[in-house]
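During the no-cost extension, the postdoctoral fellow (Dr. R.K.) reprocessed legacy sequence entries with the updated structure-token encoder. One reprocessed record is reproduced below for audit purposes.
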Amino acid sequence: MRAARLFRFPVKGFPAEELTEARVVRDRGIRGDRIAAFTNGSLDVPADAWHSYSAFTVLKNDTDLQKWQVAATLPEATDTESAIESGPDDRNSTVEAADHDSATVTLTAPTGESTTFSTGDDQGRAASASFLSERIPPQGTFPRCLAVADQGMFDSQRSGISLINPATVAAIAETDEGRAALGTDNDELDPLRFRGNVLVEGLAPFEEFALIGSIIRLGGVRLAIRSTIERCPATTVNPTTTEVDVNVPRLLNSACGHLHCGIYGQILETGDVRAGDEITVEGPAPRELVKVARTPRLMTVVGRQQICNDIVEVSLRDDLGWIREFDEPGTNLRVHLDLGAPFWRTYTITDVEDDIVRIAVRTQGKGSRAVASLEEGQRILTSGPHGTMTASRVFGGTTALITAGIGITPSLGLLRSNGLGDLPATDRIRLFHVDRDHRTACLWNRLQDRAHSGAVPVETHHRDTATAGRPGHRDLVDWVAGCDNVMVCGPRDFTAAVLAAADEAGVPAVHQETFASPNTGMSEAIAACSPAEVTLENSGTSFVWQPQEGTLLESLEARGFRSPSSCRGGSCGTCSVSLAAGSVLYPIEPATRVESDEVLVCSAVPAGPISLAL
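Re-encoded structure tokens follow.
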């Protein structure tokens, strides 16, 4: 693999400059990258200190920035910089001072007018800030400035460089969702919209994620690959036309099952890189340099066992060991495959032991058959654990777990052996399972064994539809009567019937598990929902949500309500709103966690009448 193209972004949020070569500085990044940022007026920000991106004018909040032009001039690297490799602290301060004191930046507006400032000239920066303020709308009332900081104005104080794999971008564009999003006027998704410092050639689609946790050498630069990059609405802007044309976060979430494209590296040794330089892997990075997260990473298949009929249990080892940091009974794992195009499925985690994760897979459908056929030693892309229907939320008082068919797996996940001792104030557990010809008998027997191994009294009820028929409405009402919590997972009609029974029985809390997939992606899952009344308590208004409106956030925005948001894919938590009454569905389970009385409006739709604290 090699570095095909190089870029820097002199002013945060504004367009890039392409480079043929660059010096990359330890604990910083490419010289001249993010050397300044223009505040948006929402906060009182000092002009000489790093601050988080929320204080600045950035592309995801002002897409017109892509219409500007940027040019930066930096002094040549001095002999002093090259001579002090043995003293990294001195070297860094010398390079940073050179950038800070003498970098010159010219910004040209879409109208052709321009302004030039030096990063070390306070008065010049103030004059250019006034120029920008006259042309770029504010997002608050505080005075605006062009801020600079020694380490650069990166999103994180731990700065570095980003690497994008154009093969991954092309694969995303070739999905059914990608072609639909691009429409007939566009035939490709430009990798430049992901605003990377380095475009990498020589990798298969998504193969860059295998570099997480590794030290690589990029030309003369040594860096640790510490994380994937979660994409934001800045990627909706076409870098060529400057128009907002493709909802990339939605596309990623639907086509790939995650919001990540690209990887991020922390610079360990200063050096030079040129377009065309080779990239080699040196070995594993120290654990403290790698960001532990639920994000996409590779797992290795360590076992596969057919446990009954068409159900296979697959055991995976989390090669980075991240699963231990986030494991909780009731969560699920996403498996991301390449079956000629990006493809993904969600599976309940039925067991976790150290770094080994087990999932039960029913061998129906192209994706699940591929997962069930994985050979020992294969490495596959996964993400998680995800999910909000955890034991800490589902259990309490008298709790019924009602499942049908392979929908039994969430119950197995909730009643994992390592979670039975932590059930919150649960008086009784009722297990109800429906299948045909005992096709899931192995899982039902395992579930009963787990439930009876704890101290909470358990009732078990199994119904074979081949002999007893499907449960009727009165049957379901009797099942849930007197329950404080009900969890349901099964086919859509079965779930709807249990929800109706729980409503009639007056069950205070009902939890339902929904697994979206490429065959039932975000748009399709939303389209299958029913209209529902949404009440905004603080404003005293209400409206009827319709499936064609999309998520709650999209519905609110269409009606003129301003609700804070960022990732628009259920990952950051910015859009969290208090849920005063009712319940919601997540067609694609969000990665971030919120309290049980909160809802991520960017990812949710009403499950019935709801009230929001808006």
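The first helix runs from residue 79 to 83. The radius of gyration is 27 Å. The remaining legacy entries will be reprocessed before the final report is submitted.
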